Amino acid sequence: MAQDLDFIFNPHSVAVIGASDNPLKWGNWISKSLLESTWEGKVYLVNAKGSIVCGKETYRTISDIGEPVDLALIGIPAKFVPDAIRACVKKGIKGIIIITAGFAETGEEGKKLEKELLETARMGGSRIVGPNCAGIYNSAVGLNATIVSFLRGPLTLISQSGNFGLNLNFFAKKRGLGFSKWISFGNQADILFHEYLDYVKDDPNTRVILMYMEGLKNGREFLKVAKETTKSKPVIVLKTGTSAAGTRSAASHTGALAGSNEVYDAAFKQAGIIRVDNSYELLDVGEALAKCPLPKGNRIAILSDGGGDATMAADAAEREGLEIPSLSKETQEKLSEVIPIGAAHSLKNPVDFASEADLWCFANCSKVLLEDTEIDGVVICGGFGSYKDTFPGFENVEEKISPVISQLQRRYNKPVMLESNFFLEKPKSLEILSEQGMPVYGNVEIAVKSMSCLVKYRKYLDSSREDKEEPVCFSTDRSNRIKMVISKAKDARRMSLVETEARSILKEYGLPVSDFKLAKNKEEAIKIAKEIGYPVVMKIVSPDIIHKSDAGGVKLNLKNESEVLKAFSEVINNAKIYSKEAEIYGVIITPMEDKGIETVIGMTRDNTFGPTVMFGLGGIFVEVLKDVTFRVAPVTKRDAYEMIRQIKGFPVLRGVRGQKAADIDALANIIREVSILAIENPEIRELDLNPVFAFENGASIVDARIILR
Amino acid sequence: MAQDLDFIFNPHSVAVIGASDNPLKWGNWISKSLLESTWEGKVYLVNAKGSIVCGKETYRTISDIGEPVDLALIGIPAKFVPDAIRACVKKGIKGIIIITAGFAETGEEGKKLEKELLETARMGGSRIVGPNCAGIYNSAVGLNATIVSFLRGPLTLISQSGNFGLNLNFFAKKRGLGFSKWISFGNQADILFHEYLDYVKDDPNTRVILMYMEGLKNGREFLKVAKETTKSKPVIVLKTGTSAAGTRSAASHTGALAGSNEVYDAAFKQAGIIRVDNSYELLDVGEALAKCPLPKGNRIAILSDGGGDATMAADAAEREGLEIPSLSKETQEKLSEVIPIGAAHSLKNPVDFASEADLWCFANCSKVLLEDTEIDGVVICGGFGSYKDTFPGFENVEEKISPVISQLQRRYNKPVMLESNFFLEKPKSLEILSEQGMPVYGNVEIAVKSMSCLVKYRKYLDSSREDKEEPVCFSTDRSNRIKMVISKAKDARRMSLVETEARSILKEYGLPVSDFKLAKNKEEAIKIAKEIGYPVVMKIVSPDIIHKSDAGGVKLNLKNESEVLKAFSEVINNAKIYSKEAEIYGVIITPMEDKGIETVIGMTRDNTFGPTVMFGLGGIFVEVLKDVTFRVAPVTKRDAYEMIRQIKGFPVLRGVRGQKAADIDALANIIREVSILAIENPEIRELDLNPVFAFENGASIVDARIILR
């Protein structure tokens, strides 16, 4: 069930605390916005001096208002805010929007103040938007509690930065794009990111959700809500604060703690959220998703009236993972029928015609390309929109062509977008295209990027529908057994488990660990080696020795009793030399296994998203290239496969230099089970399976470390 | 000495062949441009019908003009062009600009036609710009042989695409940016890319050279000229046609054969050319290089009036390799003195102040930041330019602040650039900034990118000045000896050398190949093994067996006579089984060497740039990750070092997992010598040293292949 924030977004009455007639003050602009909006609720203006504001009588305090108030907007200096909140709570106001800045984003002092507000509100059952925000807009009821005006439209923005949201609206308006809801929420002291998302996810007027994110306070809840949302609506995010300095700035801005960029990236992938990299891409990509049907595949045709645009579009398409297939003979013939003889530079794709001959080529060629079942979408680029000025005789031709082009998208149910070098001039022909539902862009790169985002979203929808995951099995039995292992370690004040303990836990999840046993003395060592079968591996078991090899605590390929005896003495001796104080439990004996392809599987707890699994190839791949992928736990088998395929070294697993392909399924299983283990055992802080050997059939965990909280 | 194209760019008289009064025709627009331009030369209009054009008498043919003509502009249909060229040659016209399209870019037919033109022109001593171009502009004499108008300014554009050039000028004009020279040259049938560059490189009015490149026809000459040019002027390139489809489109557009993207990238690096990735970046980066002093280092301060801009700028800075250092206490204190109390969100860097309090913070904080010797440049971002509309009372304040900010750049001789969300509105305050020499941008990413390009260019200048390379030693002796080896192989109709031959050539360059000798029989094998010293390696030597290991033709670590004997029989037998017809020269015997870090060094001949060297780490790094770098030969030691440092796996060479660092200098020497070998021996098509073991001291070439032309 969706979050109900109607008491904020659809109130019956609003009070502005800090209403003012001073045109330099926020309290003036927002009072005007509210009074001028089409919203039909009641507006109460509160002004400490009780003066007339915007021609209206004001109340000196909130308690002077005789009638009930649903929502309060607070825009007075920070030091007066706590009192105002107390008054609101006393008055029984359920929704409070604090525009005022100067709280958690400014440091310790501000954090304390913010905490105080929150406690007051919580005790009174009131909820807070902000502080340090720019208000909200809800087109459904015409409520405008911001300092700017909006067009109605299919976009909803959820933004942590007020300025960013205001700028986005500025550009949106210029392009005739409007909002269903526009939310700036600043520090998210109380209502969190995912609650806003949850509230708008079923909004019938919202077709696309745009987000500006600096950091989440509850990553797991956000992920859950986002997964639900993307089933029916595209969500596009600009996540900032990815650099050290950016985090410094983001932290000072909204007081949010940014999680690691890689884990955010993983979470977005899991939730089907489209991530853009640059500030200007958010609106552009949003426009495409709001206007275009989703393409069936990634095979795109590029149509141009000449010049370098086609080449640049093709280059960009390759970078974005789109295919620009050569056109079939039939399609090339059809094209040559609609292009004047001798005018075409290329019929292959990109299709390049000399438009000076016949501007209708823009429409006619598009039609031919859309009819081709091997083409999933069309990007038109070049000079459309500029001909009326450059070529006398073409005065109104473009304006006649525009409606024809824009119809094609609906008729063939394939995305069509246009890039014009004349975008900034806003000629009528481009405005017609835009109004009639086509995205229009100012450079080819962003047009192609937007097309690629349509492809990405469609691909996500398709693959997530296919994802029939078997349910996760929780087991109380194993849970109890694991608790005992962990308690024992905790009782001994150990923060990490020794290898025998770690292996026993992995076994509970059916993970591929070979036979093993702890030998406390020579006699046990010989006995166990025989049981396990020669050759064997011997490793020191001590809670105080983490880097076993460094301590001379590992002996490989022991072939017989005498080698085991010798190894035991050496390993124990080495350990004592390495660390005098080390408590030694004995040695672990395991079979000597063949060397497979070295991989690493791990689990860690992210500050924002909690338990998170990692996969990578071992050795230099992890150490030098940091070629690893993350996902938030639990992961499905599909997620795990995607993780494995995503690393740059993936070809190694498919087999290079005559090696056989590795058992990807076995690796995916381990990742999946590790992710369940992470959920079931909150006492385990980190887990490191390094290496895990992948074989042609199966995989084997060769070493394991588990660290407790 | 610079190329003299003055007869084209500074003619005394110009004839327009195809002049027309039809406002739909190119011949009309270009006649107007010429007549309206301030150029003081004579314009002759040639029109087949002899009608009045632009109010001027015309000539029916070029030969009707009684006076000498320096430059002809041709804009008649392709099929009439050859005759026109003949007439021009007959008339003794030295410069011909062919605007007309329909030549090499359209296919075989067009290529023939273009060849014909070229031959006619060459025989007559005339030179051609184009065909398929949009003309030229030269501000020095006011000559405008294009269809648009220009502002005078410090930029020069050299563009293969006419449309791209026209668009760039459209945007440049909007931003008050002008050109010294503007050159569109299309198919470069005759005058090549580097000749234009050579012509403008010493132009006193050109401060920055922008290039739009699809493909070069003479990469080596270009590289030479570019290296000279960047010593005194920044050169920025947008290279397109990097994708398969893009190449398809570029080829159809200008008939140029695009070289491999990686080699272009390498050549740009060697020449100090700044490469941008997107169409819109060329002008933006050009503006920065035209206006700003170069920064001493990469330590940048970001100043913002709040919001997400600072965060986004910091993120972008990290991506672009800029440093955003935390500010010193002193600087933070100075900042706090110029920012109203309580207004600042952060003084650390990014510096974030609440401008509503005092707009002068934009200037005052910039000053403080520029005074800091630990800051090399400042990026200002946010809402500057928008306050006059949003906040009554700030009407003209911004316009007063602009001149103060723009002075700071000159005063502190550090680059300052500004991003404004109000960029598109073109408020007066921003126009003042721009006019007074500051780059102004519409988004933070491009501002930061431009700053990073200033840093890059400065870095290139510094390091190329430091580069005191010892002169290359050519040797006739070795040259003769090598020729003999190659002749012998050629006489035997072999396309590749056997390992003993390859090694003998490498030795001529002092490259680290271990002792080796060819053994034709068992007796020789034993003798040689003893001479070289056990243990040894034995490999088959046969011109017909390239993959020696696959043929069972390699035996490692032979410790004594009996092992050598056994190995010899096996190797020879295996070879015969592997290929019955194989001619067997014998076996090569070399010392068994320790395994170092595996690297690969190679040489190949690029279609565009000729001999090119490659470096990479061996094994999966090359095979899976394609983690290799290229440079055009010859390379300096500095180039070679840069190549080595540039690969992603470089940390492996610095030592990981307890391995010692490799001898980078030894590797750089090999790369350098291989590049000289490539230049000295044009008969060698490709060379592959794989693997080359790198040790703590020195390196060793373990296997070598040389392929002949």
Structure, described:
The structure is a homodimer of 709-residue chains. With 709 residues, the first copy, chain A, is an alpha/beta fold. Chain A folds into five domains: 1-132, Rossmann fold (3-Layer(aba) Sandwich); 150-291, 3-Layer(aba) Sandwich (Rossmann fold), CATH 3.40.50; 293-466, Succinyl-CoA synthetase domains (Rossmann fold, 3-Layer(aba) Sandwich), CATH 3.40.50; 476-591, ATP-grasp fold, A domain (Dna Ligase, domain 1), CATH 3.30.1490.20; 597-708, D-amino Acid Aminotransferase, Chain A, domain 1. Helix content of chain A is 40%, strand content 20%. The first copy, chain A, contains 25 helices and 28 strands. Chain A has a seven-stranded mixed sheet, with helices on both faces. In chain A, helix 3 (81-91) runs parallel beside helix 4 (108-124) and helix 18 (476-491) runs antiparallel to helix 19 (499-508). Chain A starts with 5 loop residues before the first helix and ends with a strand. At the A-B interface, helix 5, helix 8 and helix 11 of A face helix 5, helix 8 and helix 11 of B.
Q: Any idea what the CATH superfamily of the largest domain in chain A is called?
A: Succinyl-CoA synthetase domains
The percentage of residues in β strands of chain A lies in 15-25%
Number of strands of chain A: 28
Poorly predicted residue ranges of chain A: 253-258
Q: Give the count of structural domains of chain A.
A: 5
> Which CATH architecture of the largest domain in chain A?
3-Layer(aba) Sandwich
Task: Tell me the major beta sheet of chain A.
Answer: 7 strands, mixed
The first-level CATH class name of the largest domain in chain A: Alpha Beta
- What structural class results from the helix and strand content of chain A? alpha/beta
- Mind telling me the C-alpha Rg of chain A? 32 Å
Shape of chain A: flat
Physical arrangement of strands within the biggest beta sheet of chain A: 7-6-9-8-10-11-12
Oligomer state equals homodimer
Percent in helix of chain A: 25-40%
Mean pLDDT of chain A: 91
Largest interface: A-B, 80 and 80 residues
| Number of helical elements of chain A | 25
The CATH topology of the largest domain in chain A is what?
Rossmann fold
Distance between the termini of chain A: 34 Å
